Amino acid sequence: MLSKAGKENLWKLLTALEDPDEPPREVFALLDGAMVRQLPDYLEDEDAEHAPLIPPENEEPEEITRCTYLTKVDSASCPVAEWLMSQGWGANWGIWISAPAGTQLDDLMGHLREMAQVRLPDGRIVYFRYYDPRVWRAFFPTCDMPQHQHLFSLQVRYGCESADGTALIIDQMKDGVAERTEHPLEAADSGEN
After folding, report:
1. Domain of 174?
2. Average pLDDT in the 18-45 region?
């Protein structure tokens, strides 16, 4: 759980501008329904714009609730942001994505879907759970330049919790080079919300 100051710092880092001419940033979260109980129900209850990364093959409740969902996070104080920072931080629920203002959920979704399936050396195509912070932390540093160029073909930044939950890791393309930075956040003191 993050302290109030940690939550504020997290949001500032996600929406920070690299250059004064850069448009404002919007924040999205790519969340793993296998890690977050009743994820689509919560997003619907909060009237959050969201869509499944890979649409379910059928309407079985178990399949719908275990899908990965992309949701727009409107502000640091919206219920979804508060929920993600209070309960999801440190629980490997998913990754944050910061994009230029005006980025449409569908456009971002198309980009993210392209990365959801990979071909194994034996030719099989499998789903790749890159949105799990444990996977993302290990995956990003192993990418070569063409993979980084694909990840950043939209002007996005990716963020996830550090392994111990004390920092926000931000991965971005800067001056044509992929860069990872780690930003310490304050953890909640006992009794602090």
Report:
1. 4-184
2. 91
